[in-house]
Amino acid sequence: MIANAVLIDCLRANPVFAQLDDAALDAVLAEATIRTVAPGDIVVRQGDAASAFGVLAGGRAKMIQVTADGRQILLRYIVAGQEFGLIAALPDLAYPLTIEAVDECQVLYWPGATLAAYFGRYPQLALNALQIMVLRNQELQARYRELLTERVGQRLARALLRLAQVTGSCDKDGTLITLPLTREDLAELVGTTLYTVSRTLSQWDQAGLVNTGRERVVVTDAAGLEAIAGTAEVLPVSCVAPCALVEMMTAARAARTPRT
């Protein structure tokens, strides 16, 4: 069982609950249900009624969508301190994707009606949720733009740097992406073929940018990948706890968001 202090820290690191005081966080946590989800089991399923909002309190999970012809597409990974299911606050909506546990996960759940009530009780929370939805929309637009305008190498470099930010741990050769990441997974993430990803990773391995193995990627030259990605937007790879990483990334995104 995760200690309450750790759960509070994860809520505090999540942008939904930013600027809520300790008393409010304690009240919110008291109304949560915590559930353990085994590796490979489903946290929420695409198409099911969006009845609950949640925060991952421990473990890692992947967000996937299934197309009309049955193909599975990997969209992104989430780690401890990250949320899902904000749409549960609205009536009669379905989850647009499936979330599957990568390893054992502890998940905090709140009914959608409870989340909607929080919007009235804590106006800052409603503002935070709106900002998150705007950021998600901006991220989707950026992904779409990348698919249309960027080379595969740029997209792959950016994907590896993002994964290293969120799941990285210090390794003797660099920063290990601690997910069981296959080349098929990477191909789905960047919208290309398995052959192209395999060829590109082999070239980067020889050039000393990454060190790859079976379901294993170590970023050995983050600056080199940033140069390929063609952006300084990506934060430096850091070896810190996941909840702290989420907080740091949220602050960085907020700093980059244009003020109106």
Topology as a string of helices (H) and strands (E): HHEEEEEEEEHHHEEHHEEHH
For the largest sheet, list the strands in their spatial order.
1-8-3-6
Please tell me the CATH architecture of the largest domain by its name. Sandwich
Regions with little confidence, pLDDT below 50 for 5+ residues: 232-260
Q: Write the CATH fold name of the largest domain.
A: Jelly Rolls
Number of strands: 12
What's the CATH H-level superfamily name of the largest domain?
Answer: Jelly Rolls
Approximately what portion of the residues adopt beta-strand conformation?
A: 15-25%
Which structural class do you get from the secondary structure elements? alpha+beta
How would you sum up the global shape? globular
Q: Kindly provide the radius of gyration, computed on alpha-carbon positions and rounded to a whole number of angstroms.
A: 18 Å
Treating each run of at least 4 consecutive H or I residues as one helix, how many helices? Answer: 9
Largest sheet: 4 strands, antiparallel
Which percent range fits the helix content?
Answer: 40-55%
